[in-house]
């Protein structure tokens, strides 16, 4: 039950802005509202590996 590093990608400009650690046994993909410095606003960020 370790952790893995995943990237969060902005859904509007597709830039990789954040890295987070996620549990390996969690099958769901993360979706978080985070600030995107490229878009200069809060947008939905989805997980990619």
Low-confidence stretches: none
Task: Give the beta-strand count.
Answer: 4
Describe the main β-sheet briefly.
4 strands, antiparallel
Number of helices: 0
- The order of strands across the largest sheet is 2-1-4-3
What can you see in these coordinates?
- The chain has no helices and 4 strands.
- The radius of gyration is 11 Å and the shape is elongated.
- It has 49 residues and is mainly β.
Topology:
Layout: E1 3-10, E2 16-23, E3 31-36, E4 41-48
Antiparallel strand pairs: 1-2, 1-4, 3-4
Quickly describe the structure:
Helices cover 0% and strands 61% of the residues. With 49 residues, it is an all-beta fold.
Spell out the key features of this protein.
single chain, 49 residues, mainly beta, four-stranded antiparallel sheet, 61% strand, elongated
């Amino acid at each position: 039950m370790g952790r893995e590093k995943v990237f969060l990608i902005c859904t509007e400009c597709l830039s990789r802005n954040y890295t987070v650690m996620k549990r390996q046994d969690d099958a769901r993909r993360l979706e978080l509202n985070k600030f995107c410095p490229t878009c200069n606003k809060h947008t939905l960020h989805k997980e990619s590996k």
